[in-house]
User: Fold these one by one.
Assistant:
Number 1:
Amino acid sequence: MKRIGLLTSGGDCQALNAAMRGVVKGLSENVDELEVYGFHNGYKGLIYGDYRLLTSRDFSGILTKGGTILGSSRQPFKLMRVPDENGLDKVEAMKQTYHKLNLNCLVILGGNGTQKTANLLREEGLNIIHLPKTIDNDIYGTDVTFGFQSAINIATDAIDCIHTTAASHNRVFIVEVMGHKVGWLTLYAGIAGGADIILLPEIPYDIKKVVEAIEKRSKAGKGFTILAVAEGAISKEDAKLSKKEYKNKVAERKFPSVSYEIADQIQKAGGTEVRVTVPGHTQRGGSPCPYDRVLCTRLGAAAAKAIMDEDYGCMIAMVNGETKRVPLKDVAGKLKMVEPDCQMIKEAKRIGISFGD
Amino acid sequence: MKRIGLLTSGGDCQALNAAMRGVVKGLSENVDELEVYGFHNGYKGLIYGDYRLLTSRDFSGILTKGGTILGSSRQPFKLMRVPDENGLDKVEAMKQTYHKLNLNCLVILGGNGTQKTANLLREEGLNIIHLPKTIDNDIYGTDVTFGFQSAINIATDAIDCIHTTAASHNRVFIVEVMGHKVGWLTLYAGIAGGADIILLPEIPYDIKKVVEAIEKRSKAGKGFTILAVAEGAISKEDAKLSKKEYKNKVAERKFPSVSYEIADQIQKAGGTEVRVTVPGHTQRGGSPCPYDRVLCTRLGAAAAKAIMDEDYGCMIAMVNGETKRVPLKDVAGKLKMVEPDCQMIKEAKRIGISFGD
Amino acid sequence: MKRIGLLTSGGDCQALNAAMRGVVKGLSENVDELEVYGFHNGYKGLIYGDYRLLTSRDFSGILTKGGTILGSSRQPFKLMRVPDENGLDKVEAMKQTYHKLNLNCLVILGGNGTQKTANLLREEGLNIIHLPKTIDNDIYGTDVTFGFQSAINIATDAIDCIHTTAASHNRVFIVEVMGHKVGWLTLYAGIAGGADIILLPEIPYDIKKVVEAIEKRSKAGKGFTILAVAEGAISKEDAKLSKKEYKNKVAERKFPSVSYEIADQIQKAGGTEVRVTVPGHTQRGGSPCPYDRVLCTRLGAAAAKAIMDEDYGCMIAMVNGETKRVPLKDVAGKLKMVEPDCQMIKEAKRIGISFGD
Amino acid sequence: MKRIGLLTSGGDCQALNAAMRGVVKGLSENVDELEVYGFHNGYKGLIYGDYRLLTSRDFSGILTKGGTILGSSRQPFKLMRVPDENGLDKVEAMKQTYHKLNLNCLVILGGNGTQKTANLLREEGLNIIHLPKTIDNDIYGTDVTFGFQSAINIATDAIDCIHTTAASHNRVFIVEVMGHKVGWLTLYAGIAGGADIILLPEIPYDIKKVVEAIEKRSKAGKGFTILAVAEGAISKEDAKLSKKEYKNKVAERKFPSVSYEIADQIQKAGGTEVRVTVPGHTQRGGSPCPYDRVLCTRLGAAAAKAIMDEDYGCMIAMVNGETKRVPLKDVAGKLKMVEPDCQMIKEAKRIGISFGD
């Protein structure tokens, strides 16, 4: 007999349902009795005891279903120790819910912030298993996170569509790709979409270099240029600012996002008209791609095994093609960023992609 | 022996290549000798004699290719009679190019503006055939234009993706769909995507009604609402302004587009947080859908027949499932808009979709 | 207060759920009280009283869901008057279920066979509304059926994939498209996919003409040829056989389907190696395309209106872009086939497509 | 100054063009002068001196294009040492073409058979770089081959489509997935598509176990079962036969492929009707998925670097997320098969997937 809890926290993404299906199928096929409690809207459901008992029917047909059947919400880690508006201690409340339901384990699906809270709950004595969910691919300790490949596909589709229209009109286009702190999604979608210039948070850009790259293409008779720009792309000057100074600067920016600002800079510097496309939240949505479905099924099945082995306090990671249990204490709080001189960046530069540096 | 010219003008869209392939295949299979001149970048190529002789190889494999192999540009009708910066009379220049090449016919692919210039050239004595291209579906005299269904598919994909993320987070989302003057694309994509509220240029909205519709859903336990908003959506108050007053108001708007303004209005009126997604030019791009490929192949083949019959001065339209030659003089300058009380709007309202009116 | 029944009968297809959602949303928004009974597995559920009461939750999120939430089965019309193995009179049983539930109307989604039984129930005094479902597009009295465009998309995808591989290897490929009696799906997918030869049930083929068309391409330096072949494609000789003779011949055929036989004939006649691909039931599956979702939403909303108007005994059709009530008695038992000399076939031939005739 | 040759050999797949683009872009951006010779139709072009000089224009826009711009053909390794019908020594002919063109390096894209010939040419003193192409993912020494993920996507799409129709009709369906010798594609597509039973060449099946798995689902109230079956799936009895005996048995089989035979066995053993779908060559076709485009761009860029470093005789592999040069002599002739007791199979079994063993 096993009693487990499930919750999905943070920005939603593809394959959350696929991962939960993996966990539950992996247990229900191998455990005599199983009770699964689904907490609604992330940690909120755990804090306020908002949950429902799930049956096998809930997990039927959800392998291909986007979003999360449990709902999600963002609950910042740094506020977890801060009592809520009614004075409720959130951490204590979560522990109470957990113990009240007499859970063997709580399976938490989420990104970096979620992982920090998961680790906190582990420190508080709860049995925790974390599954690495994020379209950003920035979780330390796993080669890949789920949602990432599905998001690449959507962002690449957008660049593909822009390609035909850019080529027809000889225009400069910016496609803004999700990613405030890390550039994995922009890097992969940019290469997959054949972008000419890729701007990442990890590699501050020099607008002159960007304009030069556009002009180099013009001179080579290529009438159009496509830029894949991460939400968190930053200029060399801005990268020198303190975090606070930069935050203020962004707040005062008259443009809704960095891409509009870069478009403005290019137009001023080079005279070229620039169009901006923002696929936005579509990058989190829709049915998970086959890659993510396989990944999640495996992570889920491996989580089920860890629960059967009563081996908790870990994230189930994918490392060199094998699922692996990685202690939460070793990875919580760490971020996996794009190294500016990594092999992949070098390869991209070798085929002529400019990073504006 | 036939000598024809081809040009694609205005904003690009899917299936331009498919349509040109249809014309050229239709002729080359049935005419002893054929010379096809492709003018570059729309009317510009005709004005400045910028063209190339095309061979059957140019038309191989382009059925599925987005964009236009000839390039396109916007050449406003109202400037056609205005000499260019060097004093060149554009209309005369186009006629000269046409006569110099001794063309039997010029096949022009484009939207409403393009059509007006096509009609002008007809009045000037050129043999013209027009093919109705636009993702807006607003060309009078044909049931459907090419590009429309492909654009619906892309806009619907965006709404589908937003659906899963909206449902997971119980959020209000706006998806901004292309269409400044007419709402066909928003209407179709909105219904296909299961949008709850659809705002069209033809049906001015009352922001109170919009907020009411959102609240009605909340009360019914549906935590999220999706709005499909046309670029040209307009409030009841703004609809009362003169064209000039409204233009000025838009120019001063602090938001990059109407959706951001509506999001702001909803937030102010109802307190709900609203997210905006702008698929933008992706709606014009990518491979044409099968529907558009069939449509364009048929229109192209019908254009070929008209050329063989030496029956010029017409648009090739699709009417009740049959291709048909419609005199350009009967349709040029007319716009096909969404009638606010048409059957389709009534049906949409019947299933509970709000148009904010 | 309205009490309605829903059933889906015959081969399943895309957008069945979308259509049912349209009916139920159209009613629930406009009727004070509504009870919806869903019969399981087509007429079987009506015969044996196998049904469930559906709630609005059943219709949430199913706009994009393939298949049918009610299940389906084939119940041949000609057996409807034949008692079942237990001596049960099926027609009487259906009437009893209908009356027992005190239904105002039974909404039946299905193809030609289903329609005949629907008309029979109408003759027996039941209030019937029929919605035209089939990937075959062969229902008389409506311009288009739902499922058709979605199936075109899937079959065209298959031809697109074959195109790249055929071109790489200079091979002759047959893609077998669904359609035993009518060729609409093959015709549309064939044109959309750029097939070189299209074989339809309505246009018997001469294998010599087929081989000639392949050789003509070879001589023109086009190394590959793609044939879109309907399941019911038939040779000129076989078309002369009586129905019974042909049936026997097919039964004895050593090939699993006609495409393998045609491949064999081509190889024998011309020496070319031919590969066969059979997408099969995938053509019925997956999420409905936006075109079908709009179509079904409109048909569903129009059905709701007919029920509110108490105007029964009709099929809801789409005619010239408008939904329309067509008396069942006028259309039941009629088939809409491809006319061999219709405009579309002529256009296809004009661009060089061979129909083997 | 570099002079390189390119050839694509064996069954075509997605991303061949993307890989060649990577090589050529990587060189042309970094080498003073570059001449690229493209050999037509695989080794045939090298043997018979059938090639063309390629320009940068040939590589523009081909990132997303399926198939191969060079054409391909199968030239069995074991026949390479056998003179052709005119007595020509193929190996000598290839060496002559290579030396006549004074190539610095020959880049060969292909699978296992291709690799063996590539290694032979290396032994004969030519500078060779091999890129691992195959939808089968069976090349030893690389974590993944290109074409594999794109093929997974297509096969999974097929299973997805079958899922909705199987569920609607409560039927047993077999989807036959490519792979005669190895089961990677079937394993991944089967898990991604949510197949209930997966039959691989590496895990001989017992038809009784297969039927039991179907019956277990029936008893659990799941009315349908989907089998993903590799082309090379084999029963336990047949696995005991000698290679020759099995070949003879297959040759005499009355079914066009193994799936039809398994369907027949299931029907005989369990009485259930089974439908078969064969996506066939579609699995090799269409546009490469973003995953493969990134993979190929990286492999291509890494090949360019190896050429600049004059480091030949290797395959460019992807190992633990990094591109790597693997000596051809270490890998040629080895096959990477699915280990029946590998982690992934265990995970699949844990969630209830049957492998019929």
Number 2:
Amino acid sequence: MPESPITARGEDFATWYQDVVLQGDMAEPAEIVKGCMVIKPNGYAVWELLQRDLDDRFKATGHQNAYFPLLIPQSFLRKEAEHVEGFSPELAVVTIAGGKELEEPYVIRPTSETIIGYFFARWIQSWRDLPVLINQWANVLRWELRTRMFLRTSEFLWQEGHTAHASHEEAVEEVLRILDIYAAVAEEVMAMPVVKGVKTRAEKFAGALKSYSIEAMMQNGLALQAGTSHDLGQNFGKAFDVRYQTREGQLDYVWQTSWGVSTRLIGGLIMTHSDDKGLVLPPRLAPTKAVLVPIYRKDQERAQVLEAAHRIAHETGARVDDREGQSPGAKFFHWERRGVPVVLELGPRDLAAGKIVVKRRDTGVKEPVTQSDLAARLPRVMEEMQAGLYQAARERLKQNTALANSLEEVVGILREATAEKGGGKFVMAHLKDDPACDARMKEFKASVRCIPLVDEYDGPGKCIVTGETVDRRALIAKAY
Amino acid sequence: MPESPITARGEDFATWYQDVVLQGDMAEPAEIVKGCMVIKPNGYAVWELLQRDLDDRFKATGHQNAYFPLLIPQSFLRKEAEHVEGFSPELAVVTIAGGKELEEPYVIRPTSETIIGYFFARWIQSWRDLPVLINQWANVLRWELRTRMFLRTSEFLWQEGHTAHASHEEAVEEVLRILDIYAAVAEEVMAMPVVKGVKTRAEKFAGALKSYSIEAMMQNGLALQAGTSHDLGQNFGKAFDVRYQTREGQLDYVWQTSWGVSTRLIGGLIMTHSDDKGLVLPPRLAPTKAVLVPIYRKDQERAQVLEAAHRIAHETGARVDDREGQSPGAKFFHWERRGVPVVLELGPRDLAAGKIVVKRRDTGVKEPVTQSDLAARLPRVMEEMQAGLYQAARERLKQNTALANSLEEVVGILREATAEKGGGKFVMAHLKDDPACDARMKEFKASVRCIPLVDEYDGPGKCIVTGETVDRRALIAKAY
């Protein structure tokens, strides 16, 4: 057997991840454009499936897509004090256009709150104009020093929702509605369990009152922030003078939200399900769901097997890999690395018995199925695999979540996890929402991921740093 | 009656166009970002329908979507001599990123031949790797001095196809296959007749061997280049060293194509069908196909009409405009300007008669339909309107196309058209494919739009400038 082109997870998780991305033909680094990548067809097709699912849910909840300019006048970012501080170090700046030095440079959008705020001010006059529920599918750019395909790249693709409401209550409802959508897509579509929570003040979005996130656990126990939903309060409304006449005839600033998920989700998907053989895709996000590999030795077998293969493919929607000059073994290997959920094996003996072998990518289990039953069986295998992947990830999350009641315990748990497999754990501990407490976690290369919305533990307790009583445990972890 | 917010076409076509775009809530200028626009929800929804249709056709012909970086190292553009000359004046340049001056600036892609050429060189080694059939949905930026919403904006959205082939013949087949797809979408989906042709040498894409285009006629007789498909020959293959081993074991450069349509199509759509009352959308591109406006005076009528309205909407997929505080007249006006193909009127008298009135946006014709027949009638009305719009545009194209056999005749026809309505005509004349001949047309503010692929006229004839014999007539017109 040839050496695997994929490093084992246990050996080096970071290299494993990169190998899976490359061998799965998902993406490749674009070294000539610092920190950027090319999303290859197999990766882009996964993104399209995710997009379609998210987009349908946004539209079903009343949102409309629109498109705003890529370039933002540099002065716009300065209008919201926290916002400019948060994003300034990451900006790419256009100083020359049409052969001339620009009087005011533009920045490439790192996110679009500012430019959309400007247009909201033009569009919104009265309570009758509210709510405004806009989403944008776009590329954004944040100059990053340390990048990793999908997880952190200078340019990435995302959707950014931007809404304006007549009350804070309504805005908060929107923020949580979207957080629920994100969690549902992560769990139901990506088979990736997440913890929904609120960010600490130190970790919130630059310019928000409050930020909410979904946090997922990767196979090495590290956390991945997979989506965020922000309650912007009236901060951007004030910065861009987005005022409206209330029902009562007063002038007030609108209450805004913004929220986004990005191609980063694909990184999370890969690190949740893939294995040492390569990419594993949950059926709902697999561009190709089943590939049939015909097996034959002699020419007379070939004709019979291929004929049956194409008939079965026609009945079931599977794709036949009838490439010449490639052994069945090479084909299995090819589709395995590309994360196809099910490979169907059909040889002369199967043919004689009226059977076909269904092999699941995640478990490797082979199941002989009567050919005439396959069209009915295949969708069920997909459902079982989708559920199985979710269960396995859910179980891993549970196994790798620990309670801690002191700073020493937190540090001990994290150190042990790092020592064992270079990974992490989710540690639940009582911690005050105070930047000083966040800073203590940073000393150990961990951070407060969120304070979960649902308390699954023991309610109030004493902060492990200050000793003050806090409502519930926070989720502390090393993160991407 | 209040004054129309829309300037009449006959009065000022350019202002009419802008009024239709604004009143149809399709887009608005973003003055703060030079030459850019915001695509508003009504406009973006049309783009999404167009995208979906095009994307399905690209995939059905074996193309896959991928995504390449927005930023391109400035040196890349210089690798193909014609290309850099063509695009240099329009570039936006990033010179600062992450707080530092860049050693080599990046340009924001004006088109992606160069960066994709770089990756093709990495991906393609052997004839077995060919063809490579890639498409990208993306934003691009070309700094423009004179802009017009949708038709010419500094940033625009488009798709760009990029393919590599093992022979010139195969590449040309691809170029023409795509040109056919563009023409089919224009005619079948947009109801916009087009002339398929090859560009003159003076008008071809910077870096192509040959460019093909579809040209549409706007209501004022001006031409709009609505899509282009380029035979790049081996120019970019040589510039980026994209070589492959042939079946015979030789090394050769690949043959490439590129092709694109953009949000400009929406401008063409608007200028083909809309009228002095505002936007007209062909049913296949209408985000909302039918709106039911309930009409009532008294409260007891209200309940009955609304109940029937919602029942009918449920049966037919129409949307009910049940906004309070708006008169039926205001509602008719609202949907008219937004280009909804059919408005359904339902009042107490219709209700008593078991009828509903179907009003078509394009003809204004009102047709009373028995309520129980509506679900069956409505799709047919849509088909009739789609066909009617196409026929009307086709007829206009025919009426406004003239033959000319001398330069004086060409100039006379164009002058007359300009004098009459500030517009243009399509003039078919024999003209040599020589930049000097193109230049003569420019003297009269016209250009050679294309040399049509199908000769609908009289075959060879003498060039109106040089007197040399050429194969067929070229299409000369004023253009956007």
